[in-house]
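In response to reviewer comment 3 from the previous cycle, which asked for concrete evidence that the modeling workflow produces usable outputs, we include below a single protein chain processed end to end. The sequence was submitted unchanged, and the resulting structure tokens are shown without manual editing.
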Amino acid sequence: MTAHAPAEPAPRDAATAFLALHSGHGFVLPNAWDAGSARVLEQVGFPAIATTSAGIAWAAGLPDGGPMSRDEMLDAVSRIVAAVHVPVTADLESGYGDTPGDVGATVARVVQVGAVGCNIEDAVDGVLLDVDTAVARLEAARAAAPKGSFVLNARIDTYVSGVDGDPFDEAVDRALRYIHAGADCIFVPGVVETDAIRRLATAIPAPLNIVAGLANNVDTLTLFSLGVARVSLGGGLARAALSLVERAGRELRLSGTLGFLDGAASYAEIQRRFGT
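The workflow returned the following structure tokens.
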């Protein structure tokens, strides 16, 4: 792993500004996978950026969900934080550790590199944790980054990992426990039906985060109308970028044409975007 000096911890007002976004009419939180993609998303005008554990792993030539170590992930997050001036929240998967103490240590480190928030999942290797274990891990995360200084987004995987019974009821029950444990926001990926999304937004007494483009193609404005406060993309932008690379490579190898460059920014324009 390449060593990088840690950034100064993010000022409290950055976390406050990020949390304030959750109380508006809804906002889109795009997911960057490296410093360059983060810079472009900032320049487009997004007021905050999330990282994507999937995109970061893919950029390293690894699959999502396991092979990348905590040190490698936090190194990538630190580069993204250092590249932009807007608040950054980090995808920390399930916290990179077996115990609540491990999760707390991970969150403490991401605070030190300057992130103002994180996601913590309640499933490990695709298996849903029992709710008491998940609560203990969130409590440790909250202790490492007190309310007001860091936005804790609790991810509930009842729709993607499977659960005995109704995933909606289990998601709501877990959400209530996680909010009591200190979560600022509740993230429920994998919900497809718009009615279920509306019901979740109504039943959960905290801002609801839904990922767009993962298991549905509902546009962001529709999600906001359903009561969603925060719409993220997960690895969606990274998938789109890598798919473009694949299509361009196939065109170049099979036909030798350069149609993939149509609409691409010029070298000078990209240089200008990344200039100091």
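Residues 158 and 170 are 7 Å apart (CA to CA). We consider this sufficient to address the reviewer's concern, and the full set will be provided in the supplementary archive.
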